[in-house]
Design goal:
CATH architecture of chain A: Sandwich
Distance between the termini of chain A: 41 Å
Distance between the termini of chain B: 36 Å
Number of strands of chain B: 11
Number of domains of chain B: 1
Oligomer: heterodimer
Radius of gyration of chain A: 13 Å
CATH architecture of chain B: Sandwich
CATH class of chain A: Mainly Beta
Helix content of chain A: under 10%
Number of domains of chain A: 1
CATH superfamily of chain B: Immunoglobulins
CATH topology of chain A: Immunoglobulin-like
Largest sheet of chain A: 6 strands, mixed
Order of helices and strands of chain B: EEEEEEEEEEE
Structural class of chain A: mainly beta
Number of strands of chain A: 11
Largest sheet of chain B: 7 strands, mixed
Structural class of chain B: mainly beta
Shape of chain A: globular
Strand content of chain B: over 45%
CATH superfamily of chain A: Immunoglobulins
Order of helices and strands of chain A: EEEEEEEEEEE
Shape of chain B: globular
Number of helices of chain A: 0
CATH class of chain B: Mainly Beta
Strand content of chain A: over 45%
Protein backbone atom coordinates (compact mmCIF):
# COMPACT_ATOMS: atom_id res chain seq x y z
CA UNK A 1 0.00 0.00 0.00
CA UNK A 2 1.06 3.58 -0.49
CA UNK A 3 2.65 5.31 2.47
CA UNK A 4 3.91 8.77 3.29
CA UNK A 5 6.58 9.07 5.95
CA UNK A 6 7.53 12.28 7.65
CA UNK A 7 9.97 12.93 10.46
CA UNK A 8 7.78 12.55 13.52
CA UNK A 9 10.19 14.39 15.79
CA UNK A 10 9.54 18.06 16.37
CA UNK A 11 12.03 20.47 14.86
CA UNK A 12 13.21 23.50 16.82
CA UNK A 13 14.97 26.28 14.96
CA UNK A 14 16.02 29.84 15.60
CA UNK A 15 14.21 32.72 13.96
CA UNK A 16 15.82 33.74 10.67
CA UNK A 17 17.23 30.31 9.93
CA UNK A 18 16.31 28.00 7.07
CA UNK A 19 14.91 24.59 7.79
CA UNK A 20 14.11 21.55 5.69
CA UNK A 21 11.31 19.06 6.28
CA UNK A 22 11.40 15.65 4.64
CA UNK A 23 8.60 13.60 3.08
CA UNK A 24 9.32 10.10 1.79
CA UNK A 25 6.88 8.00 -0.20
CA UNK A 26 6.75 4.29 -0.95
CA UNK A 27 5.90 2.26 -4.04
CA UNK A 28 5.04 4.02 -7.26
CA UNK A 29 5.69 7.68 -7.78
CA UNK A 30 2.74 9.98 -7.09
CA UNK A 31 1.42 12.18 -9.87
CA UNK A 32 1.68 15.05 -7.41
CA UNK A 33 2.48 15.86 -3.81
CA UNK A 34 0.82 18.52 -1.69
CA UNK A 35 2.01 20.30 1.44
CA UNK A 36 -0.37 21.65 4.08
CA UNK A 37 0.06 23.64 7.24
CA UNK A 38 -1.93 22.80 10.37
CA UNK A 39 -2.15 24.97 13.48
CA UNK A 40 -3.29 23.47 16.82
CA UNK A 41 -7.04 22.96 16.92
CA UNK A 42 -7.51 23.97 13.27
CA UNK A 43 -7.97 22.25 9.95
CA UNK A 44 -5.09 21.90 7.47
CA UNK A 45 -4.47 24.76 5.05
CA UNK A 46 -3.02 24.18 1.58
CA UNK A 47 0.44 25.61 0.90
CA UNK A 48 2.01 24.14 -2.23
CA UNK A 49 1.48 21.45 -4.85
CA UNK A 50 4.26 19.92 -6.96
CA UNK A 51 3.76 17.61 -9.91
CA UNK A 52 5.86 14.58 -10.75
CA UNK A 53 7.48 16.34 -13.71
CA UNK A 54 8.40 19.43 -11.67
CA UNK A 55 11.70 19.57 -9.84
CA UNK A 56 10.93 22.59 -7.70
CA UNK A 57 8.08 24.94 -6.72
CA UNK A 58 8.32 28.22 -4.84
CA UNK A 59 5.90 30.45 -2.98
CA UNK A 60 7.30 33.43 -1.12
CA UNK A 61 9.68 31.99 1.54
CA UNK A 62 8.65 28.41 0.83
CA UNK A 63 10.22 25.97 -1.59
CA UNK A 64 9.26 22.38 -2.35
CA UNK A 65 11.28 19.84 -4.34
CA UNK A 66 10.32 16.46 -5.81
CA UNK A 67 12.97 13.78 -6.36
CA UNK A 68 11.56 10.64 -7.98
CA UNK A 69 14.90 8.82 -7.66
CA UNK A 70 15.04 9.27 -3.90
CA UNK A 71 11.23 9.00 -3.63
CA UNK A 72 11.30 12.16 -1.61
CA UNK A 73 9.95 15.69 -1.35
CA UNK A 74 11.74 18.38 0.65
CA UNK A 75 9.99 21.43 2.10
CA UNK A 76 12.17 24.46 2.80
CA UNK A 77 11.31 27.54 4.84
CA UNK A 78 13.79 30.39 4.56
CA UNK A 79 14.11 33.33 6.94
CA UNK A 80 11.86 31.51 9.39
CA UNK A 81 9.60 33.44 11.75
CA UNK A 82 7.85 32.43 14.99
CA UNK A 83 4.59 32.66 13.00
CA UNK A 84 5.83 29.71 10.93
CA UNK A 85 5.49 27.46 13.97
CA UNK A 86 2.96 24.78 13.04
CA UNK A 87 2.67 21.18 11.91
CA UNK A 88 3.43 20.61 8.24
CA UNK A 89 1.70 17.77 6.43
CA UNK A 90 2.77 16.07 3.22
CA UNK A 91 0.19 14.25 1.10
CA UNK A 92 0.18 12.26 -2.14
CA UNK A 93 -2.50 11.48 -4.67
CA UNK A 94 -3.97 8.02 -5.25
CA UNK A 95 -3.58 7.07 -8.88
CA UNK A 96 -4.12 10.65 -10.01
CA UNK A 97 -7.22 11.05 -7.89
CA UNK A 98 -7.54 13.51 -5.06
CA UNK A 99 -8.13 10.83 -2.40
CA UNK A 100 -5.05 11.99 -0.54
CA UNK A 101 -2.76 9.88 1.63
CA UNK A 102 -1.26 12.02 4.36
CA UNK A 103 1.87 11.69 6.42
CA UNK A 104 1.65 12.13 10.18
CA UNK A 105 3.19 15.58 9.90
CA UNK A 106 6.27 17.29 11.29
CA UNK A 107 5.90 19.88 14.02
CA UNK A 108 8.10 22.93 13.57
CA UNK A 109 8.81 25.41 16.36
CA UNK A 110 10.57 28.67 15.48
CA UNK A 111 12.05 30.46 18.48
CA UNK A 112 12.75 34.22 18.66
CA UNK B 1 -17.62 33.31 2.26
CA UNK B 2 -17.49 30.73 5.04
CA UNK B 3 -15.82 27.92 3.08
CA UNK B 4 -16.52 24.74 5.00
CA UNK B 5 -18.44 24.58 8.23
CA UNK B 6 -18.69 21.58 10.52
CA UNK B 7 -20.99 20.86 13.44
CA UNK B 8 -20.78 20.16 16.26
CA UNK B 9 -17.39 21.56 17.27
CA UNK B 10 -17.00 18.82 19.83
CA UNK B 11 -19.08 16.03 21.29
CA UNK B 12 -18.93 13.43 24.04
CA UNK B 13 -20.89 10.35 23.05
CA UNK B 14 -21.82 7.16 24.85
CA UNK B 15 -20.78 3.96 23.11
CA UNK B 16 -23.60 2.45 21.10
CA UNK B 17 -25.24 5.78 20.32
CA UNK B 18 -25.86 7.05 16.81
CA UNK B 19 -24.25 10.32 15.78
CA UNK B 20 -24.23 12.45 12.65
CA UNK B 21 -21.45 14.91 11.98
CA UNK B 22 -22.52 17.71 9.68
CA UNK B 23 -20.49 19.34 6.93
CA UNK B 24 -21.54 22.15 4.61
CA UNK B 25 -19.55 23.97 1.93
CA UNK B 26 -20.46 27.11 0.03
CA UNK B 27 -17.85 26.88 -2.74
CA UNK B 28 -19.97 24.70 -5.07
CA UNK B 29 -17.21 22.10 -5.10
CA UNK B 30 -18.04 18.77 -6.67
CA UNK B 31 -15.84 16.58 -4.48
CA UNK B 32 -16.09 16.24 -0.72
CA UNK B 33 -14.18 14.11 1.78
CA UNK B 34 -14.23 12.95 5.38
CA UNK B 35 -10.96 12.29 7.21
CA UNK B 36 -10.16 11.29 10.76
CA UNK B 37 -6.98 12.45 12.45
CA UNK B 38 -5.39 10.48 15.25
CA UNK B 39 -2.14 11.24 17.05
CA UNK B 40 0.83 9.78 15.20
CA UNK B 41 -1.27 8.47 12.32
CA UNK B 42 -2.07 11.57 10.36
CA UNK B 43 -5.23 12.12 8.38
CA UNK B 44 -6.95 9.02 7.03
CA UNK B 45 -9.71 9.09 4.45
CA UNK B 46 -13.03 7.61 5.59
CA UNK B 47 -15.40 8.30 2.69
CA UNK B 48 -15.51 10.63 -0.27
CA UNK B 49 -18.00 11.88 -2.84
CA UNK B 50 -17.27 12.73 -6.46
CA UNK B 51 -20.53 14.59 -6.99
CA UNK B 52 -24.02 14.82 -5.56
CA UNK B 53 -25.57 11.36 -5.49
CA UNK B 54 -22.32 9.38 -5.54
CA UNK B 55 -20.09 8.26 -2.67
CA UNK B 56 -17.08 6.00 -2.26
CA UNK B 57 -15.10 4.26 0.47
CA UNK B 58 -11.75 5.50 1.64
CA UNK B 59 -9.05 3.82 3.68
CA UNK B 60 -11.04 3.39 6.93
CA UNK B 61 -14.79 3.23 6.11
CA UNK B 62 -15.97 0.57 8.59
CA UNK B 63 -18.50 1.87 11.11
CA UNK B 64 -19.23 5.01 9.09
CA UNK B 65 -21.71 5.95 6.39
CA UNK B 66 -22.20 9.06 4.28
CA UNK B 67 -24.77 10.54 1.94
CA UNK B 68 -24.62 13.32 -0.65
CA UNK B 69 -28.14 14.50 -1.36
CA UNK B 70 -26.95 17.83 -2.77
CA UNK B 71 -23.73 19.66 -3.67
CA UNK B 72 -23.32 21.53 -0.40
CA UNK B 73 -23.89 18.94 2.34
CA UNK B 74 -21.96 15.79 3.18
CA UNK B 75 -22.99 14.32 6.57
CA UNK B 76 -21.03 11.51 8.22
CA UNK B 77 -22.97 9.05 10.39
CA UNK B 78 -21.70 6.70 13.07
CA UNK B 79 -24.48 4.13 13.37
CA UNK B 80 -23.33 2.72 16.69
CA UNK B 81 -20.31 4.54 18.10
CA UNK B 82 -17.37 2.63 19.61
CA UNK B 83 -14.46 4.03 21.67
CA UNK B 84 -12.02 3.46 18.78
CA UNK B 85 -13.94 6.12 16.86
CA UNK B 86 -12.68 8.74 19.30
CA UNK B 87 -10.85 11.12 17.00
CA UNK B 88 -10.88 14.51 15.33
CA UNK B 89 -12.95 14.47 12.15
CA UNK B 90 -12.27 16.82 9.27
CA UNK B 91 -14.46 17.47 6.28
CA UNK B 92 -12.83 18.77 3.10
CA UNK B 93 -13.78 19.70 -0.44
CA UNK B 94 -12.13 20.26 -3.81
CA UNK B 95 -13.38 21.35 -7.21
CA UNK B 96 -13.13 17.81 -8.53
CA UNK B 97 -12.00 14.33 -7.53
CA UNK B 98 -9.49 14.11 -10.35
CA UNK B 99 -6.32 15.90 -9.35
CA UNK B 100 -4.32 17.84 -8.92
CA UNK B 101 -6.60 19.92 -6.76
CA UNK B 102 -6.33 21.91 -3.57
CA UNK B 103 -8.41 20.57 -0.72
CA UNK B 104 -10.14 23.01 1.61
CA UNK B 105 -10.68 21.77 5.14
CA UNK B 106 -13.24 22.59 7.78
CA UNK B 107 -12.35 23.37 11.40
CA UNK B 108 -12.95 19.82 12.58
CA UNK B 109 -15.21 18.00 15.05
CA UNK B 110 -13.63 16.54 18.18
CA UNK B 111 -15.43 13.36 19.17
CA UNK B 112 -14.95 11.41 22.37
CA UNK B 113 -16.72 8.05 22.60
CA UNK B 114 -16.96 6.63 26.11
Amino acid sequence: SQKIEQNSEALNIQEGKTDTLTCNYTNYSPAYLEWYRQDPGRGPVFLLLIRENEKEKRKERLKVTFDTTLKQSLFHITASQPADSATYLCARDTGGYNKLIFGAGTRLAVHP
Amino acid sequence: IAGITQAPTSQILAAGRRMTLRCTQDMRHNAMYWYRQDLGLGLRLIHYSNTAGTTGKGEVPDGYSVSRANTDDFPLTLASAVPSQTSVYFCASSESLTGPETQYFGPGTRLLVL
